[in-house]
């Protein structure tokens, strides 16, 4: 009994340490965002600002086009999430349900493609977008994000499709439903947690992505938030710490809000009770 209690206490302690490890950067970012310059330069920094101020936020909006950059990031992230889900859902269904060498080869390619580095993809993608006239445009960036997030989206959704009992699809087939009708009316509703999780992955990946946006977007009015944040760092590598922290805090909020709103759909057991044993 004592061993079980000690083990459980150790687990809770490890979980608490992990949560503190994850929360520390974000809490410190909030603290810096509300500190005046005098406190930022202090040799004895404190967690809670002694004289909290909103000047860093005002300065950040005055120095850089944060609203336009936020809109660009939102359009790119939403576009990538929606398109990736629309493509991945039927494709993952075929990959999970069809048996044969082609399906196995497609699954293997999806897994292997995750090992490709950014640098390997950026040159061919840049040339394709240049020929299409989509360099320095948000639609071009959406295309790149879809290409980058689609393999993992396929891998995620294929796992969710395999978890859907085949008996439901067989029952629909007996009632005369075709493959498309079965996917739309039977399988897709049961895939809601997987679709939401995949969309969330694609959204957050696109929202936080920096490298592709840096290479493809040239003018400030087309750039996304991660790229705009680098403008708070001077030519000599000296960061304007207060406005940078304020802008970074604002850039972090949307992904946190999106995750908080739909996390129940991810963890919900929508397959529970679908088939009686």
Q: How far apart lie the N and C ends?
A: 36 Å
Tally the beta strands. Answer: 0
Strand content: under 5%
Report the helical percentage.
over 70%
Radius of gyration: 23 Å
Helix-strand pattern: HHHHHHHHHHHHH
Observed structural traits:
277 residues; mainly alpha; 13 helices; 75% helix; disordered C terminus
Structure description:
By secondary structure, this protein is mainly alpha-helical. The protein is built from 13 helices and no strands. Helix 7 runs antiparallel to helix 10. The C terminus is likely disordered. It is found in: Cell membrane. Its main location: membrane. This is Carbohydrate ABC transporter permease. Keywords: Cell membrane, Membrane, Transmembrane, Transmembrane helix, Transport.
């Amino acid at each position: 009994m004592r061993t079980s209690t000690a083990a459980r206490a150790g687990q809770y302690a490890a979980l608490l340490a992990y949560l503190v490890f994850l929360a520390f950067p974000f809490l410190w970012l909030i603290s810096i965002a509300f500190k005046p310059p005098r406190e930022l330069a202090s040799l004895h920094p404190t967690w809670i600002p002694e004289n909290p101020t909103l000047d860093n936020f005002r300065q950040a909006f005055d120095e850089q086009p944060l609203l336009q950059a936020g809109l660009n990031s939102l359009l790119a992230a939403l576009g990538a999430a929606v398109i990736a889900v629309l493509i991945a859902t039927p494709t993952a269904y075929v990959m999970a349900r069809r048996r044969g060498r082609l399906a196995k080869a497609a699954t293997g390619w999806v897994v292997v493609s995750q090992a490709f580095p950014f640098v390997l993809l950026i040159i061919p993608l840049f040339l394709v977008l240049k020929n299409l006239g989509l360099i320095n445009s948000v639609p071009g960036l959406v295309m790149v994000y879809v290409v980058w997030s689609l393999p993992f989206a396929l891998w995620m959704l294929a796992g969710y499709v395999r978890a859907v009992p085949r008996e439901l699809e067989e029952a629909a087939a007996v009632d005369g439903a075709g493959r498309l009708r079965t996917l739309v009316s039977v399988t897709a509703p049961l895939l809601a947690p997987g679709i939401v999780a995949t969309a969330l992955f694609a959204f957050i990946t696109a929202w936080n992505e920096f490298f592709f946006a840096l290479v493809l977007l040239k003018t400030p009015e087309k750039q996304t938030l991660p790229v705009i944040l680098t403008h708070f760092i001077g030519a000599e590598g000296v960061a304007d710490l207060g406005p940078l922290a304020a802008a970074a805090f604002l850039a972090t909020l949307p992904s946190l809000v999106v995750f908080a709103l739909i996390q129940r759909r991810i963890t919900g057991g929508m397959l529970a009770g679908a088939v009686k044993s």
